Structures are given as C-alpha cells and as structure tokens.
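Input/output pair, single chain:
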Amino acid sequence: MILVGLGANLPLGGETPRATLEAVLRALPRVGIELVQVSPWYESEPQPPSDQPWYVNGVAEVATTLGPAALMVQLHAIEAEFGRVRGARNAARTVDLDLLAYGETVQTGTLNVPHLRLQERAFVLMPLCDLVPEWRHPATGLSAAEMLVGLPPGQKIRRLP
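Output:
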C-alpha cells in the first residue's frame, strides 16, 4: 500500500490551501500516479507550534509502477509546479507531499519510508485512520488506530466539513 501525506498552509494564486491540494490530486495521473482514495481534509496547528497559518492536511492512497525513489522525484516535481520553494525546515508552504508508506521499508541517505515521524503526528494519523485504520507500521507493528490513541495530548486538529 502506497500512502502520501498532503499538506499546505499558504494560498497559491488566490486559491485556498485546500483548493491547491485538490488540484494536486488531479495532477497526479499526469506523472504516473493513480489516486485510489483520499481522506477527508483536516485543519491542524503547525508542528512545532508557531505563528504560521494552520495547515490543511489529508492522506491519499495511490498506485504507481514507480519505485519509491522515482515516486519521490515525481512528488517533488509536483510540489515545485505548485509553488513549493524549499527553504527552512518547518517553514510555511503552498504544498507538502510526503511519502508515508510504500509497502516496504526504504532507508537511504535521502529517503526514509515509512516516514520517520508519522507516528508522532495527529495531522497524519487522523486522516490515515479515516482511510486504513488497520494499516500497520512495519517497524513497530502498531496499527494506525493504535498509534493515534497513543499520541500525547496537545496537537490541535479538526476535521473540515
């Protein structure tokens, strides 16, 4: 199962972050990525907390013949197409695409799958639980639902209508 985390907290060309993320989903097939299903959208406080605008987040299950590294190249290309400029870590952004899971564990100097911090983030685990609560982290064996219950309190997040 291939899972991609989506996030944005800056408008792009007059569009809301949510509209940008919906456009990103429509762009995936152009680069060989098929959308299987997508979670509801959530609004979450920046992590770590800051004075940035809140993020819109979701998780998508996708299918592709691309390997993990080639998939990340395509995800980065889509980010750039939608105005992502890589700069300071945890900076505000028009779009952020994270390869959360690929069905195998990948650890290289630049790519770590599953994503190293997915088990710490409500903005990943809540939408992930909407899609596949039974998905299990290959390193810990915990399901998405178990990881969500185990989060420490304090992350501010709400489901969008």
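The chain has one domain: 2-159. Residues 72 and 99 are 7 Å apart (CA to CA).
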